[in-house]
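Dear Dr. V.,

Thank you for agreeing to look over these. As mentioned in my earlier message, I'm a first-year student in the group and I'm still getting used to reading structure tokens, so any feedback on how I've presented them would be very welcome. I ran two proteins. I've put each sequence directly above its structure. The first is here:
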Amino acid sequence: MEQLFLYLVPFLGILGLLIMAVKSAWVTKQPTGDEKMVELAGFIAKGAMSFLKAEWKVMGYFVVIAAIILGWSGTLLDNSSPVIAIAFVIGAVLSAFAGYLGMKIATKSNVRTTEAAKTSLAKALNVSFTGGTVMGLGVAGLAVLGMGGLFIIFYNMFVVSSGGDVNGHEMETALEVLAGFSLGAESIALFARVGGGIYTKAADVGADLVGKVEAGIPEDDVRNPATIADNVGDNVGDVAGMGADLFGSYVATILASMVLGREIVSNDNFGGIAPVLLPLVIAGLGLVFSIVGTLFVKIKSENGNVQAALKKGNWLSILLTVAASFFVIDYMLPEGDLVMSRLNSASFTKMGVFGAVFIGLIVGALMSIITEYYTAMGKGPVNSIIKQSSTGHATNIIGGLAVGMQSTVLPILVLAAGIFTSYMSAGLYGVAIAAAGMMATTAMQLAIDAFGPIADNAGGIAEMAGIMEFKTKPDYEKCVEISTKASIREMEAPGAIALISPIVVGFFFGHEVLGGMLAGVTVSGVLMGIFQNNAGGAWDNAKKSFEKGVEIDGEMYYKGSEPHKASVTGDTVGDPFKDTSGPSMNILIKLTSIVSIVIAPFIPLDSPLGLSDNGEIKIEKVAQIVAEEPATIEVLKID
């Protein structure tokens, strides 16, 4: 039975990839429209590929250097191995490939969605959402296959072959090496998300300033050469960058649960590895039920509610995952109390573990509902920004900032309650497995997320092919080149900060200070991420509301009115919030945590500054400092 469940996980990953290939082939067979549409879509696809090639070149240098360092470091400790370098490279390659898959299908789906929209809304939804589904299944399938396959290899290499203890040093080594896979994935996610985000907003804001402000032409007017760069940005930032980002998140949450699962002594039918294997199985099941959920995203008529169809598929995948998790947890984990091997750990039961998974899925659903309330058209927060637009640009900005700040309160309370209740259910393992449960339906969530940029691109192509007379071709490639070079250059500093900071803090100040840094990064990063994402989304939808017309104090205002111009200013401010800075907070939190996990075994118990575990500065170290740098030093005991 142990072998069956072990090999079930990568099999489910392969199943997801096979269905992805079938859906991708179906999208490719759909009609592409007239020559104008095909040419415009070709410009976008070419620009997106040019950016990815430039980005991959920089990332390639980083991967090679980092892999060499990791391989060398793996020879220094007993609980690591040079194989960690191979895991790192595989994680990096799969993360980059996940982003590529998303970008490729998005640039195929956009023009086909435009053509399908000529037939019906239902057909357009089918094409665009199938394109998003290809990305979702590709990302989740690669993650499940990569994690599941490498765990089988490392488990047999370090534990089974040596007859090692599944709760001991051998399993610790296997998971430490597997952490290299997560580090590779997160490293590429950082560059892809930040670089892509900088690109898309540089192009977007540039196109807006030239088109709307200087020339006074429509947003997607192809006479503006930056328009193609703007549409390229939708693919490299909102699709490829997001794909690599969620690939990293998916892998990191699974790994965290596995690491803590090693500390649980379990008398199960899986050789004692059930707590380690469980997160992988839940991820595989989430992938399967995401596939089922996508089948229910459809509308029957032109008056169908697209948002309701997306919600139906999402909720169905969540509910099926909850139900399946109950039976899987009941089968895999043993009866009686489970205890982690660390000091003062409270016992818990397998139903406590299920409770934690259930809590994670509920938290994820609540976060989605809260985010929708603060950013959706027709809701109070967006309407408040619309009303503030009537009194000018400044009040629009103030209104958007206020909505973003207000939107952090409920999510923080929900997250805190989720952490507390999942901890009470199953300790630290419960907190980790709750996060794994929340991420289980990543394929479905990503399909919905990717649907947006595809539909947006489709609308842009439709507007451009109505406008363009093809008497002359603007210099699109120059704008793409400018944005590409700028984004590649500007992404280096944020990447270095995220990678180097935990290393410096850990080796110079020790474990406890590193833990404090991670707490600070997490708390501030979550708040900043929620604030910026929601403020940007609210500004965006406030601007879009004017396209249908809005009523302010009994008077109707439309596109081109003074309140609409104020909303455009707010949207211009909000775009970098929601597409660049906000998402980068997520990667900062994840990457600093993964780097800390990898370097933790190498950090001495006493930091180089001489701070010992009991909080005293060691006299020997102080004496050495005094000898090297004569000065008056007062040695204080740190409480």
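The second protein is here, in the same arrangement:
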Amino acid sequence: MTTDCKKTLYIAFLINFAILLYLSTDYTRYLEGITAWHDYLYYVLASISHFFILGVLPLLISLFIFFISKHKTSTYCIFACLSAFSIIMLKIDTTVYSQFRFHLSPIVFNMVFGPRASDIFHFSTSSIIKTSTIIALVFISQGLILKLAEKVQRRISSLKVKATSAVIFSAIFSTQIAFSWADANFYSPITQSINTFPIFHPMTAQSFYMKHDLVDQEKLRENRKLSKISGSKNIKYPLSEISATPLTKQKNILFLVIDSWRYDGLSEDMTPNMHSLSQSSQVFNNHFSGSNATSDGIFSLFYGVNALSWDAFTHYGKSPVFIDQLQQQNYELQLLGSANFENPPFDANVFSKIENLRLHSNATTPALRDIEITDEWLELMDKRSKDKPFFGFLFYDAAHGFDYPEDYPSVFQPALDEVDYTALDDNYEPREFYNRYKNSLHFIDSQIARVIDKLKQENLLESTIIVVTSDHGQEFNNNEKGYWLHGGNFSKHQIQVPLFIYDADLEAQSYNHLSLHYDITPTLMERALGVTTASSDYSNGWNIYNTENRDWFITAYKHNYAIIEKDRITRVNLQSGLFTIKDLNLELLPDAKLNHSIMPEVLQQINKFKQPQSQL
């Protein structure tokens, strides 16, 4: 009985291992620069060895349980549950990776299950039913797999465990040796596997290969240039004390920020009210966020600093000097987010000095929350102190959730009735999805019209500087690389956003020079708050009306940053130190070299406010 149970579990494991291997092929679809036969061989061996290790855990745990309990039924139940869980988690991870190119992680789980997670992720009823059905079927299938395994084990006299183990351990050994060599020589066709496979931590041996002169010295020098990123959480921000002479006639400042508003989303048909206001504004046609995601995009907007400083600034609860100046100059603050300010934790950095901060909305959908913050702002305007200037920040979320009220006219047709995120893949036709997105923007535009109308009614339009922009863009597989939404790459579809600034003191004008989120608060600090301190002491940007040429800029998200040049995107992973160079359409440039002439300034900008303890 004991032997039969073990054999059954082993056979069931092999079946599940085959399922895991099949699911893992979704990862290899996104490999780049694979041309040589040894690259393909590496990925065959790496897939076998890595997913064998992940898949064998339910077997080992179940065998241990059986060793202790000698109870077959309970052991089978534990094995079935653990195996089903492994398959489900791998399938979820492949889905996440296919759309965003990152894996399940504590950060992702915090976004999904953390404070007010429903503000970030919005799943339709049909998607929930579909997913629940699949999960149930996976669990049921484990019972069928065990029954099949029992039948098979009765007919097989030997399972050849030793031979199988020898093949697996040979694959593991070969994979580790191959990766350690590729890592030492920065051979990207193989080293990209560390980001491609989940929970993949292969062996490295750079010191050994360097000692025996088995490394590419030129590539080693290039990589070291990109790796000189300070890991210090010690910061000096600003670099000098902020000096300001408040203006005699202070202007109100209003930020209208639309989550996930892509660069081509400002138009007469899609956003008629904002388009109308832009005709009297300064419009920046070549504007980029500091990130492809909300957390770092908002960070770059308020601080004017690249988001690689997120951890350090959050660790110390360092408030933006822009917010500090608003408070010092007695501005009334109206901070209203449709989604919450806890996840991402803006209450710990951008708004860390705000007492009684409004953390979240009460409505249950993005569109209703957008109506809620507009209503609240209108009430605040009625109650505000007339002898104080105000700073307003309204952060709209309906476009991020592809949402609008049921009774709102669907202007763009045909449009999806609801979004099924699990259906998004390389072959998905985006037209109806994109039309739903445009309808959500049209709805947000109707809310912003209420804001503009209020300013006009109160005769405040001329005395208010209005900044209208987004935290990041939104992609609909535009590069045909399987990318959807945001957070996955640094092409223009995910980081280029609309921006116009209404300032009645300036003539309406359209600008085509490269402008960045880093430039917005320095401009307001100088023009609206009378700050005389050089922007270089508190920002990576400059006055946005400065049309001086920029040859490159930095954008970042989580553990990745990119150097965006006029013809290329150099993406760097901070954890592995590896980099890839692609053109602006995300086509790999395997023979491209780093632009060495800009690297000293790139590193200076990245480490600008990170200081060793001795310099504080």
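From my reading of the second output: The longest strand covers residues 252-258. The mean pLDDT is 89. Does that match how you would interpret it?

Kind regards,
E.
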